[in-house]
Every structure is written in C-alpha cells, then in structure tokens.
Automatic annotation (TrEMBL):
Membrane topology: Multi-pass membrane protein
InterPro entries: ATP_syn_F0_a_bact/chloroplast, ATP_synth_F0_asu, ATP_synth_F0_asu_AS, F0_ATP_A_sf
Residue intervals passing through the bilayer: 30-52, 91-109, 138-156, 207-228, 240-261
Organism phylogeny: Bacteria, Pseudomonadati, Pseudomonadota, Gammaproteobacteria, Lysobacterales
Listed name of the protein: ATP synthase subunit a
Xref: PROSITE patterns: ATPASE_A (PS00449)
Primary subcellular site in the record, as a coarse category: membrane
Length: 268
C-alpha cells in the first residue's frame, strides 16, 4: 500500500525514483547507488546458494520438485546455447544460466509492493531504498559492458590479434587502404551498439514497468474508495502481465549475450 504522497502524485513518484547514495556522493554521473548494488549482490548470492544446494542434494532417482525445477531451467538454457553457439560451451553455458536467472530475479523485485522496501529502510533510518536494480541505467550498462569485454575477448581468442584487426579494418568493403577507416568506423559502431542496445532495452522496459506500478500505487492514497478499488484491480492485473515482461526481458538479455559472443567466433 502506498504511503501518503507529500506534494501530490508527482512528488511521490519523484521521491520513489531516487536512489540511495552516500552523503558525500550525491546523484550524478559518478553516483554510487547503494540500493542497486546491494539488491543485485544479495540476489546473486541467493541464486548461487540455491543452485549449489540443489546440486549437492541432486539424486539420480526420482527428483524432488526443487531439483526438477532446476533441471528444467538448466535444460532450457543449455538448449538455447546449443542452438546458437557451436563451440565449447563449458564457459558460455554457465554464463548464460547466470545471466538468465540473475536478471530474472532482479526484474522480479518489481513485483514487490512499491513502498515495502522504502518503508522498511526508512524505519531503520537508512533512507529511501529503490528495489529494482534493472531499472537503474548504471546496473544495466555495467552488465552490458561486461558482455562487451567478453565479445572482445572471444574475438581475439577465436581469430587472434592479427585476424581480428584485419576483420575490423577490411570488412565489409574490402582491403583497399582507402577503405580501412570507413571499415573500422562501421565495425566500431556495430561493436558499441551491442552493449547500448542490451542496456537500454532492459532498462527501458523495467523503468516503464516500475513507473506504472508507482502510478497505480498513487491511487491508494487518493482518499476515494473507488480509486482505492481501481488501484487494487490495476495492481493485480499489471502484476500478472508484468510477470511475462520480466521473464521475456531476462530471456532476451541471455539470448543476445549468447548471439553476440557466438558472432565473435565467426569470420566474415
């Protein structure tokens, strides 16, 4: 349930869009968002512990519900990797699994009531705490830049330094020296567009979903039973629909990560 907005719905939404930062490091380009970092780390640790415990207790006989669920997720992710990437999957398989489950868990934080975590943290004097790391551009760009590093690493690994540089300067127009700079410029734009598209797609969808939840939550404190009822119905309907969104966004981020790394192995 939403807390009483101070200054109206606009002020309420503006307040909830702020991140928890150190007092010496206010909002800005170099701001450290403690809430996004904390939530993502906690969810990452919980994911690792969960799968580690299921792996330790795994049996060859009839699996329990928890083991069966983990096996379904593993087979699903491995199938996606196998369809796209035809090289050694010993690294890319676990990477894809980590990306899919971790991004899904971070997205799923959007299903919590808007005011739940901020209410808890403010009771302890911590300050406003934003719950959805993937609605933070700092977090989505950090993940996408990690994918960029992997793309460059696998490009050098598969083609060697001379092979990759030759591809950067001679594809797609040819090897004539006058075409080296146009080729390099186009390849550089293509390379940099990959992390930008990854980050902005995930951020845009999750930010929009979070904003809709905030708008609906504002109906709860409007002082009208009609708007209160509409808020409950809207929250429920949008929450059910949002489950599909958070799943699709996690899937897209995983698949594009696999596709981009797979492309790094290919030669023009």
């Amino acid at each position: 349930m939403a807390s009483e907005p101070q200054g109206g719905l606009t002020e309420y939404i503006s307040h909830h869009l702020k991140h928890l930062t150190p007092h010496s490091n206010p909002e800005g380009f170099w701001a450290v968002h403690i809430d996004s970092i904390t939530v993502s780390l906690v969810l990452g640790v919980l994911f690792c512990l969960w799968f580690w415990m299921k792996a330790r207790k795994a049996t060859a006989g009839v699996p329990g519900r928890g083991q069966a669920f983990v096996e379904i997720v593993l087979e699903f992710v491995d199938g996606q990797v196998k369809d796209v990437f035809h090289g050694d999957r010993r690294v890319l398989g676990p990477l894809a699994l980590t990306v899919f489950v971790w991004v899904f868990l971070m997205n799923a934080m959007d299903l919590l009531p808007v005011d739940l975590l901020p209410w808890i943290t403010e009771k302890f004097g911590i300050g406003h705490f934003r719950a959805v790391p993937t609605a933070d551009t700092s977090m989505t760009f950090a993940m996408s830049l990690t994918v960029l590093v992997l793309i460059i690493f696998y490009s050098f690994k598969a083609k060697g330094f001379s092979g990759y540089m030759n591809e950067m300067f001679t594809a797609p127009f040819g090897k004539h020296p006058l075409l080296w700079l146009p080729n390099f410029a186009l390849n550089l734009v293509e390379l940099l567009s990959k992390p930008v598209s990854l980050a902005m797609r995930l951020f845009g969808n999750m930010y929009a979903g979070e904003l809709v939840f905030m708008l609906i939550a504002g109906l709860f404190s409007a002082g009208s039973w009609l708007l209160y009822g509409m808020g409950i119905v809207g929250y429920t309907v949008w929450g059910i629909f949002h489950i599909l969104i958070i799943s699709i966004q996690a899937f897209i981020f995983m698949v594009l990560t696999i596709v981009y790394i797979s492309m790094a192995h290919e030669h023009h």
